Sequence to fold (232 residues):
Amino acid sequence: MVEVYAKLTTSGLQDRLQHRFAQPQLLELALTHRSFSSQHNERLEFLGDSVLNLAVSRMLYSALRDQPEGDLSRVRANLVKQDTLHRLALDLGLSGLIRLGEGEMRSGGQQRPSILADALEAIIGAVLMDAGYDAAEGLVLRLFDKVAISPTMTAAAKDPKTELQEWLQARRMQLPIYRVAGTTGAAHQQTFDVECEIAELKQAQRGIGNSRRSGEQAAAAAMLQWLQEHPL
Fold:
């Protein structure tokens, strides 16, 4: 009965995604938060994040033919940021489909932007595993089909990760490495301690956030602060 119900609830989502899963268990996994089960969506999110960045980069390369690399990076950051992914996830109706633990459910996890944004990335990763890169890229293009894309988006404030990346690229230095140094708290209310390392400078800074993504942004901001205080 539970399996039949799961198929019914995800059938409409597959229609909205315009992708019918040959392996529906992948979609179920993509909708499973770590607070619900030890088998959760974070590995698929890792894949989806990579596909998302590449697919959006290719899209912008074609759509904004006269823009330099720095502007393309800022527009991409605008498109793949949590707020944008959260809105797309809401449009798909993910808030009613995410599988959460009781504690996370009671604390409003179904509406939490970080959870919904991560689930959307996990779905992109699930499509990749189900049908290959072309299908996953096609999903990304459909998701952003109604999002207005123009060079004026470059006027938006840069997030710390993008600003740090551009600072390093301008000096022909390698991109930073982000790693989770530790987590604290219950599974449904974890805090992530993230380290940002610039190997060429032999420097690492830490940041704290309520998701891996926000922890990375905090660590990048700390690194930018250090660079400002220690000019090369």
Residues 158-232 form a domain with the Double Stranded RNA Binding Domain fold (CATH 3.30.160.20).
